[in-house]
Amino acid sequence: MLYISTCLTYPDAPISLLPLAKQLNQLGIDIVFTPWQQSPHNGKILPLAAWDYAKFYPEFLQWIEQHATQFINPAPLMRWNSHKSYLCDLQDWGVSVIPTQRYSSETLWQADLSVLGKEVVLKPAVGQSGHAVTKIKVGEPLPDLTVYGDDIIVQPFIAEVASNGETSLIFFKGEFSHAIRRQPAPNEWRANSQYKVEISVREVEDKIIQYAQSILHKLPQMPVYARVDGTIIGDTFLLNELELIEPALYLDKVDGAAERFAKIIKQQL
Considering 127, 142, 157, which residue would you say is the last residue of a domain? Predict the structure, then answer.
């Protein structure tokens, strides 16, 4: 049995995952869509629609601990990936990441953000779907920091994220499957669905694929599924996010993608 996790906030099966469900059924795999908060202690778990975990973070970490052997992706990777301080780790490991600094709400008030540029982006260290992601000019008053939780991620604003869009490369067991362009709406710079991002299939050069793949090889374990999000500037790839828990994999956008992933999942059962 495979449980595809939704969440109590959004309990229904997402339309985008129905092609995957169909392919899994054709391979003889029984699946159930169920909120992550109600997962049984048997079967495998694929948490692709656990879209509210940031609101219930302590419970979510406990859930990972309790079901550690059941996940399609390794539980230690999921726990690490749930807090955006993982970007600092990748930065330390030599990955080309948007320069990232981590602060508490107390230390951010004293921080000299001018070292990051004239404009910076604030993000909750535990957040989903662009919630509370804010751009400010250095020197302006900080926003209400209580909405960010205990830890805040600060990065320089990269104009190319808005102009070039974000490129998402999807990998299954370290092998490239397909790529998606996420273009922010006019007069917007955040490439998240709630900000009306435009989604399209795109081709990417082999060297971009190879660089994104090299990021996965720096991890202590190879994830079964991963989405590597970055901005292509000239001929270089600048990492924005690495998604290992509940990324949109756009399996409904690319012919054969759901079939490829279903076969990979079957190998894990």
Answer: 157
